[in-house]
Amino acid sequence: MNLITPDSGLLFWMVLIFGLVLFILAKWGFPAITSAIEKRNTHIAESLRMAAEAESRMARLGAEQAKLIEQTKTEQGKMLKEAARTRDEILAKAREDAEAQTARMIAQAKAEIDAEREGMMRDVRRQVATLSVEVAEKVLRKTLSSDSEQVALIDRLVDESASADIKKEVN
Fold it and tell me: What is the pTM of this model?
């Protein structure tokens, strides 16, 4: 038995066993290995497709996010402008209301001052009339004998009336 040149019997059995192993592998082994490789290949292809889809979705979401951020900034700018405009309107309205109220208060104060002045003028006229009546009454009560007494009496009554007016004005 030489290993380099095998016997014909050994060669026969080796070919037969090799054929039998090849047949068993071809019948049951290779299809199982091939289907496992196909499944693995399919799984890898599906994973790559899903990864590509996920990447494209992420790109779309990034674009949508950027668009939403831009819209939000635009709306925020509009809201700030609207708030500033509303603030200016409120301030202008408040200023107008304050000016109108101030004008009304000034007009009312002027009317009250005019009414008090009129009342004071009536009081002065009434007092002058009363003093005139009193002077006339005193003149009539007293019998005047001479012109000098009449002039002295009139001077004294005028001085009394002037001093009474001055005292009232001071108070």
Answer: 0.39
